[in-house]
Amino acid sequence: MIVGLENWALARPELFLAAATALLLIYGVVRGEIATAFVSVATAVALLVTAALLFLPYREGTAFASLFIADRLTATMKALVLVGSAVAILMSRAYFEQAKAWRFEYPLVVALATLGMMLMISANDLMALYVGLELQSLALYVIAAFQRDSVRSTEAGVKYFVLGSVASGMLLFGSSLIYGFCGGTAFVQISGALADGRSAEIGVIIGLVFVVAGLAFKVSAVPFHMWTPDVYEGAPTPVTALFAVAPKIAAMSLLVSVLMGPFKPLFAQWQQIIVVASVFSMALGAFAALRQQNIKRLMAYSSIGNVGYVLLGVASGTEKGIQAVVFYLAIYMVMTLGVFATILMMKRRNIMVEEVSDLAGLARSQPMMAFGMLIFMFSLAGIPPLAGFWGKLYIFMAAVEAKLFVPAGLGVLASVVASYYYLRIVKVMYFDEPAEAIDRPSFGVNRVVALVAAFLIAIFSLVPQPLSLIAEAAAKGLFQ
Amino acid sequence: MILQALAFYVFAAITVASAAMVVTSRNPVYSVLFLILAFFNAAALFLLIGAEFIAMILVIVYVGAVAVLFLFVVMMLDINLTELREGFLEYFPVGALIGAVLFAELLLGVGIIGSGSTTVAALNAHGPHVAAIDNTRAIGRVLYTQYFYLFQVAGLVLLVAMIGAIVLTLRSRPGVRRQRAGEQINRTKEQAISVVKVPTRGGV
């Protein structure tokens, strides 16, 4: 009874997404470029339907000979990833149409990347982890280079590919060491082997370090962050929006399930690594972004900093910590999508602009857009009572409860430094001499996304409890 | 038994000799051909120890795909070997050092020097004897059952690779005349032939 019906039932969302993608691919190939608009909307709808299938009805357990696991945490993370990808697909049309790269493969490759992320999140075995990760990464390399006539986009793709392959290599090397020393690749086997007292074996620890390094690359934590600014700046803006959201959440969820699952007995060992990565990410995210002029590059450093805060929650290793991680990631996703929707509306005489100085005087020419950006920036800076503040508060509280006083203190300091560059954008928009006015944004998806994001932030700011309860339920799934 | 030993030495000698020829031959095309010879003999060595699956994979993947790809590259690019050889003596010590390290690792692993509990020979004692299992069947049994999921996801990875290669390289060139078989077949006599009365001394 290895491949039975219950396996299919448990993986129903994934199967639906794979089938929908395959059908839309065939449709796109048959109809050609005219099908692009339909395929794009249909893919986004398929992603949202997949997210609904996760909970209607909700199922949990393991499937496919224990290679695949579904619980509250995986379902919540998958839902975040699916919504993020769907919104990123919908946001991309105007940009790609203008860049003459509007092709039906784009939404489909994003959908396949999302499928890879879902499989990563549900991995219950080192091999399943690796194939899911590769499915996601390979698709992301392709879409980083999707605007193939642009030198910067292809450069971003090649850079991401080469560095990502190195990270995959490290991950594989670590996995092989763990396999050798634990005698199995299944998470259950690993935790079993580590629990019976052999936990301090040096080979396992070296393997763990390599696996964590590989995953740290995927979430772009310091010191494996080098690729992030270049790839974020070079890739087409809607792709950057996707990169800043979906893969980050998926890789972070994977990191949580690997560290809190099979490697729980090695908590003392991996906590040091995660704390160091977290502190340096927060510091680098704060200081390196101070002098950035390009807003996409700035967002790249901002994402590195945010990863630092999330890692602090992971490092606490408690249920509170994981709850804070889920809560933070959800709010981070909303804020980031809002910022990128605004960036995608920044056009002057119908040409996309992406320098911070281009925003000068925006409050006078486009007050609504400036006000939206103001909310996102205040929230990212963590100014109370906005949603970003609650996210940081939960993280720091969890860290303090886990007796990580110094890292939490450093995190607060980094967050103070980081608020400088978030507020600088607000200052440029509201107090600088107006540059040539930004075009009035046409009514489109990006405007809706920015509005909804601002609205959601307002709601989370006033009533953070519902989201916090969802995060709590997700974290419970891991600690059952 | 003696026949097996004889076969082993023949295949091993050819493998080593052709590997040496890969490095030393003056013509890069010959190098690749010797590489293929080395792969074939390595496959034969695998067959001798009973690992027929790896032997077949070696032939299909390395000879069928990798070596042919090398051959393509070598033939497409105009590689000047004398230029490549220029720094040979300069880099020789580093290369020799790496080679020596790799060789020492092999000896350590097989257990010729310092055999311990982690050498290949010692680890082999725990596992099943390679020659005793029908290994293609063993892989087939788990590939489509226990590892069915991984097999399917690997298929998806290949699908992404295919879409990616097409998306990033295929260009539709305007003005290219394509054969449209349907239109050709549907042409009627009336469309294709026109009868013209040619006046005498007038021409068409």
TrEMBL record, chain A:
<comment type="function">
    <text>NDH-1 shuttles electrons from NADH, via FMN and iron-sulfur (Fe-S) centers, to quinones in the respiratory chain. The immediate electron acceptor for the enzyme in this species is believed to be ubiquinone. Couples the redox reaction to proton translocation (for every two electrons transferred, four hydrogen ions are translocated across the cytoplasmic membrane), and thus conserves the redox energy in a proton gradient.</text>
</comment>
<keyword id="KW-0812">Transmembrane</keyword>
<comment type="similarity">
    <text>Belongs to the complex I subunit 2 family.</text>
</comment>
<feature type="transmembrane region" description="Helical">
    <location>
        <begin position="402"/>
        <end position="423"/>
    </location>
</feature>
<dbReference type="InterPro" id="IPR010096">
    <property type="entry name" value="NADH-Q_OxRdtase_suN/2"/>
</dbReference>
<keyword id="KW-0472">Membrane</keyword>
<comment type="subunit">
    <text>NDH-1 is composed of 14 different subunits. Subunits NuoA, H, J, K, L, M, N constitute the membrane sector of the complex.</text>
</comment>
<keyword id="KW-0813">Transport</keyword>
<feature type="domain" description="NADH:quinone oxidoreductase/Mrp antiporter transmembrane">
    <location>
        <begin position="123"/>
        <end position="416"/>
    </location>
</feature>
<keyword id="KW-1133">Transmembrane helix</keyword>
<feature type="transmembrane region" description="Helical">
    <location>
        <begin position="322"/>
        <end position="346"/>
    </location>
</feature>
<protein>
    <recommendedName>
        <fullName>NADH-quinone oxidoreductase subunit N</fullName>
        <ecNumber>7.1.1.-</ecNumber>
    </recommendedName>
</protein>
<keyword id="KW-0874">Quinone</keyword>
<dbReference type="Pfam" id="PF00361">
    <property type="entry name" value="Proton_antipo_M"/>
</dbReference>
<keyword id="KW-0830">Ubiquinone</keyword>
<feature type="transmembrane region" description="Helical">
    <location>
        <begin position="367"/>
        <end position="390"/>
    </location>
</feature>
<feature type="transmembrane region" description="Helical">
    <location>
        <begin position="103"/>
        <end position="121"/>
    </location>
</feature>
<keyword id="KW-1003">Cell membrane</keyword>
<feature type="transmembrane region" description="Helical">
    <location>
        <begin position="202"/>
        <end position="227"/>
    </location>
</feature>
<keyword id="KW-0560">Oxidoreductase</keyword>
<feature type="transmembrane region" description="Helical">
    <location>
        <begin position="298"/>
        <end position="316"/>
    </location>
</feature>
<keyword id="KW-1278">Translocase</keyword>
Automatic annotation (TrEMBL), chain B:
<feature type="transmembrane region" description="Helical">
    <location>
        <begin position="91"/>
        <end position="113"/>
    </location>
</feature>
<dbReference type="Pfam" id="PF00499">
    <property type="entry name" value="Oxidored_q3"/>
</dbReference>
<feature type="transmembrane region" description="Helical">
    <location>
        <begin position="30"/>
        <end position="49"/>
    </location>
</feature>
<keyword id="KW-0560">Oxidoreductase</keyword>
<feature type="transmembrane region" description="Helical">
    <location>
        <begin position="55"/>
        <end position="79"/>
    </location>
</feature>
<keyword id="KW-0472">Membrane</keyword>
<keyword id="KW-1003">Cell membrane</keyword>
<comment type="similarity">
    <text>Belongs to the complex I subunit 6 family.</text>
</comment>
<keyword id="KW-0874">Quinone</keyword>
<comment type="function">
    <text>NDH-1 shuttles electrons from NADH, via FMN and iron-sulfur (Fe-S) centers, to quinones in the respiratory chain. Couples the redox reaction to proton translocation (for every two electrons transferred, four hydrogen ions are translocated across the cytoplasmic membrane), and thus conserves the redox energy in a proton gradient.</text>
</comment>
<keyword id="KW-0812">Transmembrane</keyword>
<feature type="transmembrane region" description="Helical">
    <location>
        <begin position="147"/>
        <end position="170"/>
    </location>
</feature>
<keyword id="KW-1133">Transmembrane helix</keyword>
<dbReference type="InterPro" id="IPR042106">
    <property type="entry name" value="Nuo/plastoQ_OxRdtase_6_NuoJ"/>
</dbReference>
<dbReference type="InterPro" id="IPR001457">
    <property type="entry name" value="NADH_UbQ/plastoQ_OxRdtase_su6"/>
</dbReference>
<protein>
    <recommendedName>
        <fullName>NADH-quinone oxidoreductase subunit J</fullName>
        <ecNumber>7.1.1.-</ecNumber>
    </recommendedName>
</protein>
<keyword id="KW-0520">NAD</keyword>
<dbReference type="GO" id="GO:0016491">
    <property type="term" value="F:oxidoreductase activity"/>
</dbReference>
<feature type="transmembrane region" description="Helical">
    <location>
        <begin position="6"/>
        <end position="23"/>
    </location>
</feature>
